Amino acid sequence: MEQVRICLVGAGRAGEVHGDVYFSSIPGAVISSVFDTDIQKAKNLAKKYKLEEKHAFSSFEDALSCYKFDAAVITTQTFTHYQYTEMAARKKIHVFSEKPMAITLEDCDRMIDVCSREKVLLQIGFMRRFDVGFKEAKKMIENGDIGDPLIVKSVGRGPGLPGKWAFDIKNSNGNLAEVNSHDFDSVRWLSGSDYKRIYAVAKNSKNPEIGKEYPLFYDNAIVSATMKNEAFGMIDSVCPCDYGYDARAEVVGTKGVIFIGSLQEYTTITCTRQKGMVSPQVLSWKKRFHDAYIAEDRHFIDCITQNSKPSVTGYDGRNAVAAVIAANKSIQEGMPVDL
Amino acid sequence: MEQVRICLVGAGRAGEVHGDVYFSSIPGAVISSVFDTDIQKAKNLAKKYKLEEKHAFSSFEDALSCYKFDAAVITTQTFTHYQYTEMAARKKIHVFSEKPMAITLEDCDRMIDVCSREKVLLQIGFMRRFDVGFKEAKKMIENGDIGDPLIVKSVGRGPGLPGKWAFDIKNSNGNLAEVNSHDFDSVRWLSGSDYKRIYAVAKNSKNPEIGKEYPLFYDNAIVSATMKNEAFGMIDSVCPCDYGYDARAEVVGTKGVIFIGSLQEYTTITCTRQKGMVSPQVLSWKKRFHDAYIAEDRHFIDCITQNSKPSVTGYDGRNAVAAVIAANKSIQEGMPVDL
Amino acid sequence: MEQVRICLVGAGRAGEVHGDVYFSSIPGAVISSVFDTDIQKAKNLAKKYKLEEKHAFSSFEDALSCYKFDAAVITTQTFTHYQYTEMAARKKIHVFSEKPMAITLEDCDRMIDVCSREKVLLQIGFMRRFDVGFKEAKKMIENGDIGDPLIVKSVGRGPGLPGKWAFDIKNSNGNLAEVNSHDFDSVRWLSGSDYKRIYAVAKNSKNPEIGKEYPLFYDNAIVSATMKNEAFGMIDSVCPCDYGYDARAEVVGTKGVIFIGSLQEYTTITCTRQKGMVSPQVLSWKKRFHDAYIAEDRHFIDCITQNSKPSVTGYDGRNAVAAVIAANKSIQEGMPVDL
Amino acid sequence: MEQVRICLVGAGRAGEVHGDVYFSSIPGAVISSVFDTDIQKAKNLAKKYKLEEKHAFSSFEDALSCYKFDAAVITTQTFTHYQYTEMAARKKIHVFSEKPMAITLEDCDRMIDVCSREKVLLQIGFMRRFDVGFKEAKKMIENGDIGDPLIVKSVGRGPGLPGKWAFDIKNSNGNLAEVNSHDFDSVRWLSGSDYKRIYAVAKNSKNPEIGKEYPLFYDNAIVSATMKNEAFGMIDSVCPCDYGYDARAEVVGTKGVIFIGSLQEYTTITCTRQKGMVSPQVLSWKKRFHDAYIAEDRHFIDCITQNSKPSVTGYDGRNAVAAVIAANKSIQEGMPVDL
Using CA atoms in the order D66, D70, D73, D79, what is the torsion angle rounded to 10 degrees? Predict the structure, then answer.
């Protein structure tokens, strides 16, 4: 296999992020088609990636039959992930699915099963695991540098609300899924343990108009978790977050602490009398995790060409979904929920 | 009143911190006697503050009758605060009581009542409120700089365990009281609202030997709070914390965020190939809040000489105690607790 | 022109940096041949970039005649830059030359002339200009955010000595050329003015054995400059720098200041009692300017495909060389030198 | 000696800084009189420190004869330091003199001589040596943590111009004396060596109106120094500095580097979309070195009561003056100047 041919399944924001990476930064991959139920979006991306218009599809079935490709990069609305995964896998096409993996655990299981049965790869889009800062932290934890993890904290605050379809948390599992899947994964990954019990509270502070139509909608939440190894997890969620994209983590161990990430985008600091010392904050997940997205997508391509297993699996995706579901249940019942 | 005469009620670590401040940094105050049930400790501090040995007492009654003083600085074990407060107040002596104010809300109420009845001042030792960083943050919040507070996070990790008497949480309310009273106060103060509901989990990860004798003892905990104004609070507690004294806070508002404090003690950074970039961490609350302790004690003296009300009241102390009690109840019941 | 074909002229460290970028991160470019007088090095890189061995050359003449290419990326020893530039330009091949542009101003002029005459592009390798932090600083200065520049400081400390050929400063212009060309360019670029007068002192503190053979060799130096617009420049040079690769700048203006860059490689901070707060320092220019190298090389490709002028020109390269020559003269004469 | 009695010699800004420290933070000292040729200033400070008006003097002779005191804290205009030092010393009064010690080396020598002859202490006001960050850096350097110092950089940028008397550099030695004496001392102290050769350039960028009357006046300058142990020194001077009070240092050694100080006043950081991440900058030397001033003044009192030698001597003061004079000579001659 000379170059891995990719079909972008979904031509929205996340589709474009991966598309840009494959197009501009990974010579070993080539985008061969773009699918989106909104054909105009598909065409726009196809054009951006120098494809003829006929490589843009509004039906995934057509995309599958027209131009051969090796891998599907799925970034559509969460509840469709299973369907496209199954269609791809059955054609022996490798699958990269953005987070959240799915809405239900049943869908997660079916995705894992079909990819396993069809012997195709399934990688889930937890790009933080490919960020140098997170990676080094994980390495240090495994190396025992801070002893056993006692408390893992993860901050997940995103500037822009997900699409309207996600306001109904029955459809989407809400912001904890759309925005904070990464945090649920990070707490699990950095603590080295699965979730045992979760307590969460949430409220809608800034979007009363959305609340009228979707009473369960929330735009900020805090989560308290106990892991199976007794480590604690703390997640806070704010979205929309006016001041920027804030993704940081902190791991307290028996012997030390690790702080991961920064709100500062780059290290140019200005000072004037009127404005004080000013640093530019991170405003976008695309910039914050720019290198991580490249490393993540390169990993997917490498796994395909080298026939190795992705380091982020459907099992990881499923565990994050399970935690999100428990957290939403806790929010609604006002009680801790066991997993 | 030329100089305010002070009796140190308690000659342990906290007594010495305040004693040092009054002795070295506040010309308007003079230490006139030292009381501790351990007479040797009292004598040691008396000597340190250039007092003759006869100014050291093992009975507070004797201290009250021997040398006239204007103010009592109470730093004894928590469950004795009420008793000494009452004895002092009845002699028209102003009271500064370290946190936690007391073990029970009944004691808190009785302290407030007796000081009110006797018309003496009652200030509680939440020195963070006098730290320039916390103060400026509070000012900015009140000024609306970050909009309405959505989430207030407070980190309270202390290097050294409290005394043995505090291992039995029935005696002491545990580390959440001894170490994290400050955090409970900060969340309330910075959010601008009282506690409505608290959920907490705790465990004993590093002190199995203490656990044998005191099964309810915990050395790390996380707390999830909902305030009456719907703001959320998150507190984490680690003690003993091997890596230093870590006291930071973070307030997310509808329009922005404020980060308060740093683990870095001072801004001297070294870099060598072997050790990387190294900053000195804060190892002691005495150093971290050195200036805050001076400001706090100066405030107490100023209130006495200017006959004004302390900015940190018995009511503040009581609210922190109430929150700690609720958190401990939540830990034991595994459920959220309403206040 | 579908893809820009590149010949790597020089297969040393810098050749590999650009090779890696073209190979892994710029789909619009393709490496078509590698030249190095050390054929083994050429072969190694050719292999790394999946080229057959016959695409590796030990003669640039052969390289020019065997496989057609559009652009030469010259990273050989400084004194050869002119020669290869001329050979390439005469074949209508675009030239990217690493810094320092050349050893003499005559060579610089000849490089500018031949490229101009042959109508090929000439870009000089000042990658800092493509670093987001430097770029934003330049933008802010031009925007007047800090008023007029008064003092521009640039730190250039590199971990590894250049090759042995560079120890003789008559061959190489010394570390100020090999290591600090970037700083001379930054001071000029950020101050917005050419050099008027330079004073420099240097010494050899860590390499007495080199000093025996090359008495003019220095491994640390400081430079004081006055620009034509009266701004001051300060450069310090340390190489080998044991603790890492330290490239920072600071611009003081009439109204404010800008700090550019950091010694911290990424924002993962660990703290333990024994080691204090530790951040990873930057150890390599490849990592510090990873994104800048990509942006720089992409700019070169874009200029070729879009037929536009590189933003970093031979004129910029020549000015840095002139400043380096003046600084070396000042070091030897102990006097300030006018440009 | 129970309490050290102090006469404030000079009731300007610096006089008030020391007066505040002695009045509010050092119980072992008592201010007994205040002298200033401007009697109103003397009266104001006397009042601030709860002295009766008769303790304020416009003649130092009167001050010396009226109320007995043990120590003189001299903060008057530089060229008067010698005169007051001599008058005090001859009455067996200990002397603390602010920097710069004097205008001429002759005056420095005479101050050293008279204090030595009269057996009174002479301490010079280099408070940075009492700052925890500077002190720890010095300790680490002496401990060999970064090897031998190669380059010492010191930033001295002050917000407010000295008084009008200082505009004429013949009177005052200019900003390099008034603002940067500290930097000249720091470079010497941290490098562990005396000055050998200095080159400096200066200009007047922001104060053309002052320049009309005082053509030698400069408001920004850079200094290049070679120390006797071959270490290099770099100082930059900006005053008035619009953006704050910026006092930082950096020491590069053969094995590592130390960064001292920060422009950030305290660690409260705010972030909003419009303003970015904002920290408060240091605006005043009083705040930046608040604790250092207390430690410095305490040291003076301790030396008096314990009959020990101040750690900052007339010899240190003299060396800074010598370097400033050489730098000014270099500025005027355009050449390096040997010491």
Answer: 70
Q: Is D23 on the interface with B (CB under 8 A)?
A: yes
CB D163 within 8 A of CB D184: no
Whether the ω angle into residue C100 lies within 30 degrees of 0, i.e. cis, is yes
Q: What was the pLDDT predicted at B137?
A: 98
Which chains are within 8 Å of D by 3+ CB pairs? A, B, C
Whether residues B151 and A246 touch (CB distance < 8 A) is answered with no
Q: How far apart are CA D137 and CA D129, in angstroms?
A: 10
Are residues A121 and A115 in contact, defined by beta-carbon separation less than 8 angstroms?
yes
pLDDT, position A136: 97
pTM metric for this prediction = 0.95
Of D52, D51, D50, D90, nearest to D72 (Cα)? Answer: D90
Q: Report pLDDT for D227.
A: 98
Percentage of chain D lying above the pLDDT 70 cut = 100
Q: Which residues pair with A337 in a beta bridge?
A: A198
φ, ψ dihedrals at C279, nearest 5°: -115, 150
Sign, CA dihedral A263-A265-A267-A270, equals negative
> To the nearest whole angstrom, how far is the Cα of D149 from the nearest Cα of chain A?
27
Residues near B171 by Cβ (< 8 Å), separated by ≥ 6?
B79, B103, B165
- In the predicted model, residues of chain A with pLDDT beneath 70 are 1
d(CA D257, CA B211): 46
Q: What values do phi and psi take at A90, rounded to 5?
A: -65, -20
Interchain CB contact of A255 with C (< 8 Å): yes
Chain D residues with CB under 8 Å of B255 CB are 272-273
- Neighboring chain D residues of C255 at a CB cutoff of 8 Å: 242-243
Residue D1 has pLDDT above 60, yes or no: no
CA C20 – CA C22 distance, rounded (Å) = 6
> What's the one-letter identity of residue C302?
D
Provide DSSP, A32-51. EEEE-SSHHHHHHHHHHTT-
What pLDDT is stored for residue A148 in this prediction? 98
% of chain B exceeding 70 in pLDDT: 100
Distance of alpha carbon B97 from alpha carbon C296, whole angstroms:
64
Angle, CA of D103, D107 and D109, to the nearest 5°: 125
From B269, B270, B273, residue closest to D145, measured CB to CB: B270
Q: Which two tokens stand for residue A190?
A: 């950095």
Average pLDDT over residues C208-224: 97
Contact status, residue D78 vs residue D172, Cβ threshold 8 Å: yes
- Give contacts of C27 with chain A, Cβ < 8 Å: 23-27
Instruction: Please tell me the predicted confidence (pLDDT) of residue B28.
Output: 87
Render pLDDT for B298-322 as a digit per residue (tens, 0 to 9): 999 999 999 999 999 999 999 999 9
Quick check: helix, strand or coil at residue B149? strand
Q: Residue A262: list chain C partners with CB under 8 A.
A: 267
Residue B273: closest C-alpha in chain C? C243
Grouping H, G, I as helix, E, B as strand and the rest as coil, residue B184 is helix
CA distance D302 to chain B (A): 13
Query: For residues C334 and C113, is the Cβ–Cβ distance under 8 A?
Result: no
User: Is D264 touching A (CB cutoff 8 A)?
Assistant: yes
Label residue C176 by pLDDT band (50, 70, 90). Answer: very high
The ipTM estimated for the assembled molecules is: 0.96
* Distance between CA atoms of residues D34 and B292, nearest Å: 30
Residue range C77-125, pLDDT digits in tens: 999 999 999 999 999 999 999 999 999 999 999 999 999 999 999 999 9
Residues B232, B151 contacting (CB under 8 angstroms): yes
